Amino acid sequence: MFVDGINYLLSLSFPAFFAMFWHFFLLELPRFVIAGIAVCVATMVRRRSVVPGLPLVRPRISVLLPGHNEAENLPRAIMSMREQTIPPDQIVVVDDGSTDDSVAVATAMQKDGLIDVVRSTQVRGGKSAAANLGLAECSGDIVIIADADTTYDCDAFEKLIAAFNDPKIGAVAGNLGVRNPDISLATRWQAIQYQISIGLGRQVSDMLGVLFIVSGAFGAFRRQALEQVGGWSVGPGEDAELTNKIRRAGWQVQFAPEAWCLTDVPETFAQLARQRLRWDRSLVRMRWRRFRVFLDPTDAQFRLSNALGTIDILFFQALLSLSFVIYLIWLFDVYGSFGWIIAVVNLLAYSLFGIAGFAMARIAAPNARVAGLWPYVLGYGVFNSLFLRFVRLVACFDELIFRRSFDDNYVPRRVRHAARRSRVDN
Q1: To which H or E segment does residue 76 belong?
Q2: pTM to 2 decimals?
Q3: The dihedral of CA 91, 97, 103, 105: what is its sign?
Q4: What residue stretches are annotated with the Glycosyltransferase 2-like domain (predicted)?
């Protein structure tokens, strides 16, 4: 039956074939083509309008590292910072009410001259509270936000701050890779996704002027921009919200593809699903509830790039997941059991596009660490098109109906309730 089905598909005229696979041709292919064009441009002109090297006047650099129960990870992260070709002028560590030895470890490293400032919230207040407490201690013109479970290439800070040659730049996003890809199939597929969605995807967004996320694991901010927008708001999703506020304030945001840091990712699919449910709920919360003003042309701060970026995120990350489910329902309703063959062909197409996307990502943001993942790339297309889309769809409905992000334990309950009473997150 399968062979007969393939022969039938091959016998179709192009209009009939197009009508059968409309979702792929109309909604999936255009973005892939845009990414391909962007890779070609990025290969010929590695960075647009950025003077290579350090700013003419080297800015003072502060690293801000908020964390909760990071005693085990902290020494490795600090040593990675101290080994930079452009070491930071100041490292500020803020403990967010940890129950382990984080404060003791940080204090010992401070005595050794490896950390400059150690502060603690005493009780857990969430990452945003810790980051804002630390920001008050930062003396640098540029503030690099970091996580304790990340490490950095030795020239990562140098590559990251180069963009601040341009006085219009308010924030720069670093590149993220997976440090633990060999643990499981889940970590391998995440390593591939990070290479494609961050190494390639954010480079495309940057080139189009619609970059809306500077990761809290590795990003740099002009302190003036941080102070102008009031720092970090209550999470989850505080990284995206801060980036949105900076863009709305008129600053530009850029991506530094050669500034690499490595982070640990969830090792099982269950852990991954829980992480992505939190991330994707924040997508709805940030884009629709908090920043739908980006779509209002009557707003005094309206910018076309902000509107287009918001539409891009809502469509390709949220609505595309829903449209794929609608397409599958339509497929089996119209074609019955033959729909299984069409679905398999769709998955094969996604797998091939996954291979092509990974190849483009390797060109756009070379990373030797993922070279051994080629055998897993074929299955990545299925993982991305089915597993991650299903999780995203569940998260979107969960947030729209139940506002589940407001009950996320990522932020302590008392902080969430205080934020809701003050309407900070509504």
Answers
A1: helix 74-82
A2: 0.88
A3: negative
A4: 62-229
